[in-house]
Amino acid sequence: MRSSLWIVTATVAAALSLGACSSARFGGAPIRSAAAAPANPPPVEAVPSGPVTSAPLPPLEGQPLPPVAGAPMSGMPGAAAPGTEVAGLPPAAAPAPAATPAPASRTAMVGNWTATVAGGSCKVQLTSSPSLDLYRASATGCPSQDLSRIYAWDYRDGEVYLYQTGGAVAARLRGSPGSLSGVLAKSGAPISLSR
């Protein structure tokens, strides 16, 4: 019986020692005691980074830029100046002038206007004084009753909205800071404003 106890003890001791060794040997984490681990590991410093940008790669040395839609881009290396001919390609065209953009803000619309409607003209004033979530407006001497009752205005999505007392839209107009045109909301009659 003593020998079988000794065999069991030796087997258990061997199994424990092999188990402890095998965890580190076969890729497992070695077993550490709590005393061996540091209480507060040192902080890890962040890697500094800068802004991320992208740009087209420069052409290979000695290689011209490939043509875009059959013609080289003006202003780029290897491109022809506007009006000059490159062998086998049509002359490069000068860029077209940009279209006149709509006014960027309502401040360009503030001021005195002359409104022209069927039956005559009158004076309209668009102010920068707030009136709830709109701005104050007034009209004097207008032949159109819809236009004579305006009290507020707003500028949204490139359009000037004129409002009557009660909140109904009197007119919607589009244009530039010097000239607007549109229609009266109820009748559909044309209206224009000019400085």
From TrEMBL:
<feature type="signal peptide">
    <location>
        <begin position="1"/>
        <end position="20"/>
    </location>
</feature>
<keyword id="KW-0732">Signal</keyword>
<feature type="compositionally biased region" description="Low complexity">
    <location>
        <begin position="70"/>
        <end position="83"/>
    </location>
</feature>
<dbReference type="GO" id="GO:0004866">
    <property type="term" value="F:endopeptidase inhibitor activity"/>
</dbReference>
<protein>
    <submittedName>
        <fullName>AprI/Inh family metalloprotease inhibitor</fullName>
    </submittedName>
</protein>
<dbReference type="Pfam" id="PF02974">
    <property type="entry name" value="Inh"/>
</dbReference>
<feature type="domain" description="Alkaline proteinase inhibitor/ Outer membrane lipoprotein Omp19">
    <location>
        <begin position="105"/>
        <end position="195"/>
    </location>
</feature>
<feature type="region of interest" description="Disordered">
    <location>
        <begin position="34"/>
        <end position="104"/>
    </location>
</feature>
<feature type="compositionally biased region" description="Pro residues">
    <location>
        <begin position="56"/>
        <end position="69"/>
    </location>
</feature>
<dbReference type="InterPro" id="IPR016085">
    <property type="entry name" value="Protease_inh_B-barrel_dom"/>
</dbReference>
<dbReference type="InterPro" id="IPR021140">
    <property type="entry name" value="Inh/Omp19"/>
</dbReference>
